[in-house]
Amino acid sequence: MESESLQRRRSSSVTCNNAPVREKRPKRSEVLAKKKTVEELIKAARAQKDHLAHFPEFCHFHAKGLSLCLKSGHGNKLSSTVKTYIQSLLKLNMEGPYGSEWPEEEKVKRREMVDHEAHYVFVHEVANSNADEMTTMLTAAKTSTCCLKNSGPLVGFVQYRFVLEEEIPVLYVYELQLEPRVQGKGLGKFLMQLLEFMAQKNCMGAVMLTVQKANVLAVDFYINREDE
């Protein structure tokens, strides 16, 4: 399986006569202090129960015939119904790109799905009868999640984690999965923007993800995001 991932860029310093310059190494105490700071950032980000609560303007998506609401979740608190939905949507969207490797990859994704460090944003449809109540909730901003108890069915989800990559604290997007019927309507862009704000709020150095080269639509989507 070939996949795209961020790579470290290496550079070297030289003098005008091409002789290498010795860069001053940081003191061990400085290295340890920096490491501790980064670890504390990641620990604090992981401990938050609802990252969506800081961004009420992202709790609702209404565009191109879609009326959706967002809700936070955690890998170790998923209901059996939600687990089944996640597995089904992953298979629908990813079995094709993975091909013969899917059976093994599916096992990996099932383990990742319920990890205690896995954070989720779930996307639900909003029933027409709840539209007015939803608008009131958004205006009042009295709730950390915009989804009502009787919100409609799931149409997608994001799984993300706060991790250390090459000594940099990052928000790593493990999954961004949407049902085909809600794709191509700006929802993916909306969710990526939310994740970028979450990363900034938690002082992460970057947002990272891995995309298969075989998944052409996903590759194009993320490349276009970088160009914006």
UniProtKB/TrEMBL annotation:
Region ranges (Disordered): 1-30
Gene Ontology MF, one: protein N-terminal-serine acetyltransferase activity
UniProt domain N-acetyltransferase: residue ranges: 106-228
Class in the EC hierarchy, top level: transferase
GO cellular component, one term: cytoplasm
One Pfam family from the record: Acetyltransf_1
Primary localization: cytoplasm
Protein localization: Cytoplasm; Nucleus
Catalytic activity: N-terminal L-seryl-[histone H4] + acetyl-CoA = N-terminal N(alpha)-acetyl-L-seryl-[histone H4] + CoA + H(+); N-terminal L-seryl-[histone H2A] + acetyl-CoA = N-terminal N(alpha)-acetyl-L-seryl-[histone H2A] + CoA + H(+)
EC assignment: 2.3.1.257
This protein's UniProt keywords: Acyltransferase, Cytoplasm, Nucleus, Transferase
Protein family: Belongs to the acetyltransferase family. NAA40 subfamily.
PANTHER family: N-ALPHA-ACETYLTRANSFERASE 40 (PTHR20531:SF1)
Protein name: N-alpha-acetyltransferase 40
Protein species of origin: Phaseolus angularis (Azuki bean)
